[in-house]
Amino acid sequence: MKMVFRWFGEGNDTVSLDQIKQIPGTEGIVWALHDVPAGDEWPMDKIMKVKDAADKAGLHIKVVESVNVHEDIKLGLPSRDLYIDNYKKTIAKLAQVGVKVICYNFMPIFDWLRTDLHKEMEDGSTALFYEKAMIDNVDPFDLVKRINENSKLTMPGWEPERLQYLTQLFEAYQGVTQEHLWANAKYFLDEIIPFAAEHDIRMAIHPDDPPWPIFGLPRIITSQENIRRYLQLHDSPYNGLTLCSGSLGANPENDIVSMIHEFADRILFTHIRNVRVYENGDFIESSHRTQDGTVDIAGVVQAYHEEQYEGYCRPDHGRHIWGEECRPGYGLYDRALGIMYLWGLWDAYQKAAAAEGAAAK
Ligand code: DNO
Fold it and tell me: At the top level of its lineage, which domain of life is listed (predicted)?
């Protein structure tokens, strides 16, 4: 397992590369050009800036999250070919600087969604929270306004230039069903995967968060069955998965351990985090520790260990603790604690396996 850490870029993150470098066992950053709109080709000079900064800090840049997919591709509009072309140009450039995995998602309009970015927990820390009844009944435009007012920084998927077009986007998605989305995903994969393979870059689809349709928009990367279908849409080792335990774990019916075993050879990147799911469907992003949430994180790490997982891993959203002011979910402290918990589990399973091996001799 190779540990990496998400970094939003110079001037766009409260965490520094030097701090990331000091988290034990962390070898690279997970990055993107967050100021380039979805659909545009990434400029080489901006890519090089990130590479130079990471090189200087002694961290690699092999994992990108995300090259966002333009809505016209998800909608299957004729203009998609232009955006697919730009996507390929970006892939070719990323290959030149040594990128190996591109994480992306196929969620209409919204990326991850929460109703409260600073919900207070029993211990005084705050965390990302999702109130199900609120989304089930909310007007999406009100919600966007709230998010805008709540956060000083932009969030992935909620970039100001996208929010402006929200009305048009909602209209464009009228009548777009899950089956349309599947067909549009296949068109995208059939174009992108062979090209990415030529450049030795693996594509890693991120599950939908939360893993169910919201605001009447279709969502498809929601369950084991659907992930299986997605990986088979274009059957290639370059069509892989970012297995996110927190996104999928928001639906307790999702069995993450079983997914790890089934998709082991297609998991390129894993996001490991816990969520505490309540009976009414609300959930909060608790600490990474198994006992604090609903997802069996120890079991998840054990499954990766059993599969001798060699892909990339990052801790995911942390709580906001010790007074840290940071991008919601992306502070230093709780994610660093998360890494140490993951390594603790991993090393313990490693030791146990070695001892078993020795005893069997
Ligand atoms: C949330 C992230 C997602 C993820 C995208 C991938 O923090 O896990 O925003 O980056 O869905 O495209």
Answer: Bacteria
